[in-house]
Specification:
The chain is of the alpha+beta class. The chain is built from eight helices and twelve strands. It starts with 5 loop residues before the first strand and ends in a 5-residue tail after the last helix.
Length: 291
């Protein structure tokens, strides 16, 4: 029993949050529920009184409502690459727990993995968000922090708090009531592709096409895997994620393998000059010294 009132977090059903908070966003917290699950809850506060009762904060009425995100998870049920939604727990969203963390953390803490692994992640990311569009979901918050790694290191997308549902019968470009479009999702996916290509986080915070940065202010894509595809996407040359995916697959299939790159390296003038210089230095060192 506590002796003085204490500020606390509460579940939407009014009960006390006692588990560890492992994530926090603008709209809520992620609570580590048990070894295999987490619960996403709105930011709800209360006051734990000495008698053990909880007095909810009056400002809780302004907290985010998770019902929209719940509906989106339900529509995306069965889509490969979406974090597994397990239903409602204490009026929060119960999700499978992925202990490997997100791509943003992975990028900050590790050296770049082999390009084949990064290319595989890129294709998975394209597939999962193309599937979202096929289900008429505008994702919006596409970022490295919202792409988790499952136990087998495959991608799991989370956080649809700011996403929008369009009618299933809708055809053509998806547009929500704020003017956000599926073509902006394409650009944000491209930011993730760029980040994985250079193993450095990049994002452009914009919600309309008018806010998209000028070409001069975007980072260079020269000498990057998929650099030409990224540049084309940033200049709005792809209508949808299917077009972007086709370009990525084509570019990956045309990239030389390591075994092809090695002979090319030996043919480069810089390598030849360096090799001749090294040979000359070696000859000087091996020349018999005069006695």
């Amino acid at each position: 029993m506590i002796s003085t009132p204490m500020r606390c977090l509460i579940y939407p059903d009014g009960s006390l949050v006692e588990s560890k908070i492992i994530g926090m966003g603008l709209d809520g917290f992620v609570v580590h529920n048990d070894p295999s699950t987490v619960v996403k809850i709105p930011k709800l506060y209360g006051c734990l009184l000495p008698d053990g009762t909880i007095e909810p904060d009056p400002d809780n009425e302004w907290a985010s409502d998770l019902s929209g995100e719940k509906t989106i998870y339900e529509r995306l049920h069965g889509v490969r690459g979406i974090a597994k939604y397990l239903g409602v727990f204490k009026d929060g969203l119960l999700l499978e727990y992925y202990g490997n963390g997100c791509l943003e953390e992975h990028m900050e803490q590790t050296s770049p993995p082999a390009w084949s692994q990064r290319a595989d992640w890129i294709l998975q990311i394209l597939d999962v968000f193309a599937a979202c569009h096929a289900k008429k979901v505008l994702v919006f918050d596409i970022a490295l922090r919202n792409l988790l790694l499952a136990d087998d290191c495959t991608i799991r997308a989370i956080d649809f708090a700011n996403s929008s549902l369009c009618p299933m019968e809708h055809t053509g470009e998806l547009v929500d009531f704020n003017g956000y479009t599926s073509r902006l999702d394409v650009l944000h996916v491209t930011n993730v592709i760029y980040s994985l290509s250079c193993w450095k986080k990049f994002q452009a915070d914009c919600v309309t096409m008018d806010e998209w940065p000028d070409a001069e202010s975007l980072p260079s894509t020269m000498d990057l895997p998929l650099g030409s595809v990224i540049a084309k996407s940033w200049s709005h040359q792809f209508e949808d994620l299917e077009e972007l995916r086709h370009a990525v697959v084509t570019a990956i299939s045309q990239e030389p393998t390591t075994s092809q790159l090695i002979p090319r390296l030996f043919q480069k003038p810089v390598f030849i000059v360096c090799a001749l210089a090294c040979a000359a230095m070696l000859a000087v060192r091996l020349r018999p010294r005069a006695r």
